[in-house]
Structures are given as C-alpha cells and as structure tokens.
Design a protein that fits this description.
By secondary structure, the protein is α/β, with parallel strands linked by helices. The protein contains 12 helices and 8 strands. The structure holds phosphoenolpyruvate. The site of phosphoenolpyruvate has 14 residues, from β8.
Length: 254
C-alpha cells in the first residue's frame, strides 16, 4: 500500500486539444465516473481558450483547472502571453510550468521556470513544475546530472516557503507522447533522486512532503503498476486525459 501522507494528484494536460464545445462535452461524461475518487486531487489543464468553459463545467465538483503556461510579469507588452493573475481571474488554481514541450519549442530555461513559479505562487496558483531528461541524456548516463541541473536552476532556487507550495512532475522527455513509459522502477529511481536533491537543497522534511508526479505515456493499462510505487504521488497525463473514460480509469486506480 502507498503511504497516505502525501495526497495523490492526478492531472490531465490537454495540450493544444479541445475547443470550448469539446470541453463542454467532456465533463458530463467524466465527472460521474470519478465520484468515488476521493483519494486524490484531480486537475485538468485545457488550452487557454477552453479554460472558462472548463471552469464553468466543473463548478461544484472536485476538479481543479490549471493553465498550461503563465508569464512571469503581471501584465505588459508580451504578445501571446497570459499572466498568472489572468489565470486566477478566470478560475484556475494550478499552472503547469516548464513542460518539456515549452522548453523544447519555446526556449523555456530553468531561470524562466523559476520566475514563472514565483509569479504563480505570488497570486496563489499551485505550480506543477516539470523536469526530465531526454533520450540521449538517458542513454549517455546523464539523467541525474540533468535532473540536478534543472532542479537547482528552477524549483531549487525558490525559498523554502515557496518550495513548500509547489508540485514537481518528473517527465522523461523520451516517454512523452511516444507510448514508451518509464517502468515503475525507472520512474521510482528518478523520483528518489529528485527527493534527494530536495533534501540537499532544503531539508529532509521538504523532501518527505513534496509531491512528485510522474508523466510520460501514462495509460489505463500501466497506471496501476506506476501508482503502486510509493515514490509516485500521482500522474501528469497527456494523451490519455483527452478521453473521459481513459482518464477516469487512471484517476480511479488505487
Ligand atoms: C504530458 O503532456 O505531460 C504527457 C506526459 O503526455 P503523454 O501522457 O501523452 O505522454
């Protein structure tokens, strides 16, 4: 059995999928399927244009809504960007920060991850801070070096108080959207290493209490094995969160 000390979080990242109409269709199917899932927090991150529809559709439910990105400034001349304050105003309570697709396609750096995390925390959002190595880095034995570097430059540079309010997501890039999931043992080893980084930078208490989600091709048929690992405090799910029944099956796994 998994330790109950750290409450599990199951988060869906819809990426650039689902219009407002598709968002409105999703929740009446999804919500009844997760009524018994009181063992975990449930979060969905729709694209910006569907956030309002998702907030409306989940009102009165246990599902929280997240942004997929935020800017570190409150407002300004930043075409195409959305601030943390704007996310709060539309009803978000979480935000994904440092997703590997943003690092890869939008040049997001560890320093930006730290700035965005701070901006989110300042207005009460819970950042889900992603880190993970790519295929070459794993194959050449650099996983720990990369995780350590991303940690120190990003969430590890927050104050202890700020750090106590974030979630981490270990997302090996080689497993995202590829159908190649890390085995439960590989995922648990990376989580243990990250917890050690937290202990070295902050404290044993911070390491014991930070929740670390796993992300990378989590599906209904592999979620049970992953969630059985004590080290995994939940999942960040991309593709499989787009289908209400698939995501509900993952949320409901105990
Ligand atoms: C993600 O987008 O964070 C993710 C893990 O995607 P997928 O589940 O599709 O690999």
């Amino acid at each position: 059995m998994r330790s109950q000390v750290r409450r599990r979080v199951m988060a869906g990242n819809w990426k650039m999928y689902k219009t407002q109409a598709e968002t409105r269709d999703f929740f009446p199917v999804f919500l009844p399927l997760i009524l018994d899932a009181t063992h975990c927090d449930v979060v969905i991150a729709p694209p910006f244009t569907s956030i309002a529809a998702a907030v409306q559709a989940t009102e009165g439910s246990r599902v929280a809504i997240a942004g997929q990105n935020n800017h570190w400034q409150k407002e300004g001349a930043f075409t195409g960007e959305v601030s943390s304050q704007m996310l709060v105003a539309v009803g978000c309570t979480y935000v994904i920060v440092g997703h590997s697709e943003r690092r890869q396609y939008s040049g997001e750096t560890d320093g930006m991850v730290a700035q965005k995390s701070r901006a989110a925390l300042e207005c009460g959002l819970t950042p889900i801070v992603c880190l993970g190595e790519n295929f070459t880095e794993r194959e050449t034995g650099r996983t720990q070096e990369i995780l350590s570097q991303q940690f120190i430059g990003g969430p590890g540079s927050l104050t202890p108080e700020e750090f106590s309010r974030i979630l981490l997501a270990y997302e090996p890039v080689w497993a995202i959207g590829t159908g190649r999931t890390a085995t439960p043992d590989i995922a648990a080893a990376a989580h243990r290493f990250l917890r050690q980084c937290v202990q070295d930078q902050f404290s044993a208490e911070a390491a014991a209490s930070v929740r670390i989600l796993y992300g990378g091709s989590v599906k209904p048929d592999n979620s049970q094995g992953l969630m059985a690992q004590q080290e995994l405090d939940g999942a960040l799910v991309g593709g499989a969160s787009l289908d209400a029944k698939s995501f509900a099956a993952i949320v409901n796994c105990k």
